[in-house]
Amino acid sequence: MKSSRLLSILLALLLLTGCTRPAPSADAKVSASASADESPNETILFAMDTVMKLTVYGDESLLTAAEARITELENKLSVTDENSEIYAVNHNGSGSLSEDTADLLGKALELCHRTRGALDLSIYPVVRAWGFTTGEYRVPGDDELSKLLIHVDYTKIAFDEKAGQVSLEPDMEIDLGSVAKGYTGDQLVSLFRQAGVTSALVNLGGNIQALGGKPDGSPWRIAVQNPLGDGYIGVLDVVDQAVITSGGYERYFEEDGQTYWHIIDPATGAPARSGLISVTVVGDSGLLCDGLSTALFVKGYEDAVDFWREAGGFEMVLVLEDGQIALTEGLEGQFSPADPSAEEVLVIRHD
Ligand code: ADP
Ligand code: MG
User: Fold this and answer.
1) pLDDT tens digits, one per residue of 56-75
2) For a pLDDT cut of 90, what percent of the chain falls above it?
3) 3-state SS of the chain?
4) Which of 26, 88, 94, 192 is deepest in the core (most CB within 10 A)?
């Protein structure tokens, strides 16, 4: 991992801690249901190639259970771990999947269809050619990309969900990296909810999912990072929602004055230059928000707005290359800009 990326994740975590720290409490006693004066149980860990922070108002053992669940999912879904299910499928051309992996693959393929291939799980060989999987960055030539793009087509992933069987065409490889953290967040929230927790915050490297609000009933305050510099562009008040950002600043390299980032336009095989530099999607499902944040980054402003108007079921904050912030009308009362005197925030409406 690039040290600048690790640093920015740590900074984001610090920021988040600042925004979400509860009022100091003299009594650190913790019970399954949250009350306004208790301290949370927290842990910070490194998994899925990112820094994660879990905050739970509930029994400490829930953190151990959550960490075990993260490890279990990472072991199944990782594209680089030689023992994972996805690795096996990529290297054998087919394979049978566990319930988790089949569930995620089915839902992710549905998102590929809904976004008409802006999200494409078979983009992996192209991502690798740019060096994003290893950190050995390079700019592939046009010929190399054209050859790789022949095998990028999610409609050719043959998946029998009932049987849990998937098979790929020769030279195809799949990667669930664009949706795995959102799915994991959903799993952790449901694990906590089933244990009776009513207040928790799951931060998977900037993918944030809230269970309930804070113990005092007020919303969680989630900072949306500034994709053009330090700090954040604003704060979102959320209860029971996921807030997931895809940005050009998350993983990138520079060569000959050009910046190349890790979100690829499947139509060209190159980093998506749609005019957007960050897309934050807010909604009930982490999986949906994660998949859409990647796909709408590829689609660009106009197509993202059309998609939101037609599909609904989520809200979004877009940052354009010139720094203009735009948000959908459902977030109007939820978003406070960091700098209220800065250029006006554009509100995207349904009509
Ligand atoms: P992050 O995981 O860094 O938060 P995203 O959720 O946007 O960011 O996922 C980006 C990852 O998804 C990339 O690292 C790459 O592995 C993969 N990817 C890049 N472009 C696409 C795409 N168009 N469709 C599906 N996966 C993609
Ligand atoms: Mg994503």
Assistant:
1) 999 999 999 999 999 999 99
2) 84
3) CCHHHHHHHHHHHHHHHHHHCCCCCCCCCCCCCCCCCCCCEEEEEEECCEEEEEEECCCCHHHHHHHHHHHHHHHHHCCCCCCCHHHHHHHHCEEECCHHHHHHHHHHHHHHHHCCCCCCHHHHHHHHHCCCCCCCCCCCCHHHHHHHHCCCCHHHCEEECCCCEEECCCCCCCCCCCCHHHHHHHHHHHHHHHCCCCCEEEEECCEEEEECCCCCCCCEEEEEECCCCCCEEEEEEECCCEEEEEECCCCEEEECCEEEECCECCCCCCECCCCEEEEEEEECCHHHHHHHHHHHHHHCHHHHHHHHHHHCCCEEEEEECCCCEEEEHHHCCCEEECCCCCCCCEEECCC
4) 192
Position 34 scores a pLDDT of 52
Q: Nearest residue CA, atom 22 of ligand 1?
A: 119
pLDDT band of residue 342 (cuts 50, 70, 90) is: confident
- pTM listed for this prediction: 0.91
Q: What is the pLDDT of residues 1-29, one digit of tens each?
A: 444 444 444 444 444 443 443 333 333 33
Which of the listed residues 124, 133, 262, 265 should we mutate to test ligand 1's pocket, taking the one with most ligand atoms within 8 A of CB? 262
Which atom of ligand 1 approaches the CA of 179 most closely?
A: 6
Ligand 2 center to residue 257 CA distance, Å? 26
Name the band, by pLDDT with cuts 50, 70 and 90, for residue 123: very high
